[in-house]
Amino acid sequence: DCIDSELLDLVFASLKHTNRFVRETGYMVCCALVSIHPRDEQTENKGHIWSEGKRFADVLERGLSDNWSQVRMAACCATRAFLLGIPAGGRDEFFPQILPPLCLNRYYIAEGVRIHCQTTWRMLFSVSGVKAVEQHLDSIVPFYIKQSEADNHAVREAACACIAELATKVGSDPVRLHVPALIQGLLICFEDDSWPVRDAACAACGNFVAVFAEECRAYIDRLMPLFYSNLEDNIPSVRQGAAVAISNIVRAYSSPLSNDVIAKLSELLDAVNSQQDDSSLYSDLSKKPAVFGVAMADDPTHTNQVMYSCGSLAPKMGRGGKAPGAGGCSASHHFKRPSQPWERTDGAVRLFMELSDVQGTKAELIKMIPKLSSATQKRNFEHHKHMLETIFKCLPMIFRRLSKNKVKPYINDFFDALYYGLKSDMGLLKAASVEYLQSLSLLLGPNILKGRIEMTNYDMMLYVQDAFPETVGM
Predict the structure, then answer these.
(1) Cβ contact 333:323 at 8 Å
(2) Which of 89, 266, 327, 407 has a C-alpha 20 to 30 A away from that of 378?
């Protein structure tokens, strides 16, 4: 009886307050209100709580998209209480509004929000979640595209992950009509300042090309330079994601595109030959003393700006390569370090591994194995051990996928680098070298491997015994 329109108006007004603590508390109050008055306990839907269901849906939709993770979390709790307080047959009227942000938050960067929304999703749909998405694609797709243009980089990343999900988990026929709009949104995110957004956009485009090859054919000329840019990125996971995406494109379109990819691969494998001795990170930045200052109280760049969670890089990371002048805990910033030659070769090695599983490219890849072995000899720069680690991680898969008889003549060419890796003081390189040694034992047989090592570099036998004696049958 105490819950009337006046109280609800006050609570809903608090959800628009500029102070995020007020908004967070407001959503916690909403959660309490719908929890103590579930809809199925009110005869004929009477009472102020459920007569204001449309307004509740409006504020929950807004709260699930708040820039502050704490507010999102409170809105997630209120959303769960609201939807579970309604009989299953009565929830459909609110799904067009609430389902899109709830679906997106399953991939949100804040772990509490992400796990809570995933649990809510299972509680609502059990095993029928895909069907629910298909039924509400007309509201979900525009929301995803809008969120891919959000100022918050974490939201853009989640939107790209959700778009990728549409290609891999939802039926192709319902999504097919939305492919052009979704690809356009991903193309913008592909040039994002934030590398996780670029990585997610790259993976999503690769998934769409694999599933909707004909619909995506018109965008290949725009996509390929972006894929190659990611393949040369200074972030290892971005390079790996680009390698997977490019292999999907080669599977989908084959030649003549595969010929262009092979040519690019050959070029990048040779890139390390131009690597300078100094490969230190951020070597291109100024070494001069920085200038610091204090923001003035009346500085317009710090007044009436969108606020983000503390620690968020959202104000720094511009969407589509354009840094917004946003406020918050950080100043505007636009920065991406150019990749170095060894990083481009590292990306090529990853692409080599992914292409080794694609029919029609294996003959050309076998011819380029000497380029791989040549890259292992380039050790004049500081970060050569990172590149060697990647090579020894990829070689086992490459040799397994290519013909055993075709790769056997090249195995000895890597023994010098293998010896170097086994005695390295870098733990990750040493572990990758041991794993490569194990793969050779399985490929050739332990006794044949032992004979090859003894003939090529007998000093390596000591490290082989210490690192993995059972591999060579000793």
Answers:
(1) yes
(2) 407
Q: Give me the phi and psi of 289, to 5 degrees please.
A: -60, 140
With beta carbons less than 8 A apart as the criterion, state whether 454 and 463 touch: no
Are 144 and 104 in contact by the 8 Å Cβ rule? The answer is: yes
pLDDT in tens, 231-259: 999 999 999 999 999 999 999 987 788 89
CA atoms within 13 A on the CB side of 158: 26
| CA–CA separation, 211 and 360 (whole Å) | 20
Q: How far is 55 from 225, CA to CA, in rounded Å? A: 46
pTM (2 d.p.): 0.81
Contacting residues for 234 by C-beta, under 8 A, at least 6 apart: 336, 337, 338, 339, 340, 343
Q: What does the pLDDT average to over 353-369?
A: 93
Write down the pLDDT at residue 467.
Answer: 52
Look up tokens 């009477």; give the residue. Answer: 46
**How does pLDDT run across 104-134, given as a tens digit for each residue?**
999 999 999 999 999 999 999 988 899 999 9
Distance from the first to the final alpha carbon of the chain: 83
pLDDT higher for 42 or 28? 28
Q: Please tell me the distance from the alpha carbon of residue 250 to that of residue 254, in angstroms, as a whole number.
A: 5
d(CA 30, CA 24): 10
Look up residue 322 and give its DSSP letter: B
